[in-house]
């Protein structure tokens, strides 16, 4: 099923993101993670693609296929295009079709440090057009409530986002953020530009301080004072930090749902325990919202 059609059936969509293990690590752990996550009945699970196309022997396709064909949960395979030729992408698309994978999260990927790219794509909107021309896929794209790191002009970033939607993206997933007001402002900018595809809010629970520092340095998310206080207070107590991080994420999600946001995409960091605690905390809210009829 296409993700856009899940949004037609449900008032609120709740989904997970996982990443394939590093090439040297065995797949057994991720199989167990998926087993645990499937019990939480997400609407779909997306699987990331190695930076710069580094996912050797395409674990993204393998895991997306397992989620969809073994466990019967819809999946979305991330796909980056920087450094790839058009025929590289076509080969991957054929593989996805053969594996009955219906949804792709189409991305540019990060520019390599040496800034060289011998590929045929410069931006995600070109990949989106290419996918549209070569198959019947649901196409998701990334969006950035605080602007992408290479483009801090928020209005220009929305113009570029609109281009991805015009080229065929029918669903958006946001970069993580810790201040919901940033996301509400972003939704307003999208609405003013008539971007009317479903937009899911990307939520990342804090699991440890180092991880959050690294990720926010990479994406530039604002850290609210309340959030910094939690990190500083519990940084040397991993269990307390994890519990406070879960509570923070739950509070964010409850506020987003109460404000009418229709999709929550949980960056699980392959941690089923954290995903379970969050899902259990917001499950009754999502169930009750989904009982309301879509008008
Ligand atoms: P684009 O939409 O192409 O944008 C990249 C930059 O180019 C932006 O600054 C944009 O403003 C600018 N731009 C766009 N169009 C133009 C134009 N016409 N002219 C000039 N500038 C333009 N990375 C991975 O490697 N693997 C993953 O699995 C992965 N999953 C992700 C999932 C989500 C939900 C998100 C938010 C990010 C993910 N990323 C992943 C990271 C992503 O690859 C990087 O953020 C990357 O730098 C940008 O990708 P994009 O698809 O948003 O690029």
TrEMBL record:
Superkingdom per UniProt: Bacteria
Catalytic function, reaction form: (6S)-5-methyl-5,6,7,8-tetrahydrofolate + NAD(+) = (6R)-5,10-methylene-5,6,7,8-tetrahydrofolate + NADH + H(+)
Cofactor list: FAD
CDD domains linked: MTHFR (cd00537)
GO molecular function: FAD binding; methylenetetrahydrofolate reductase (NADH) activity
Pfam families with a match to the protein in the record: MTHFR
Keywords, alphabetical: Amino-acid biosynthesis, FAD, Flavoprotein, Methionine biosynthesis, NAD, Oxidoreductase
GO process annotations (BP): methionine biosynthetic process; tetrahydrofolate interconversion
EC number: 1.5.1.54
Pathway: One-carbon metabolism; tetrahydrofolate interconversion; Amino-acid biosynthesis; L-methionine biosynthesis via de novo pathway
GO cellular component terms attached to this protein's record: cytosol
Enzyme class, broadest EC rank: oxidoreductase
Signal sequence coordinates: none
InterPro entries (alphabetical): FAD-linked_oxidoreductase-like, Mehydrof_redctse-like, MTHF_reductase_bac
NCBIfam families from the UniProt entry: fadh2
Family (UniProt): Belongs to the methylenetetrahydrofolate reductase family.
Name the UniProt record assigns to this protein: Methylenetetrahydrofolate reductase
Provenance organism: Clostridium intestinale URNW
Organism placement in taxonomy: Bacteria, Bacillati, Bacillota, Clostridia, Eubacteriales
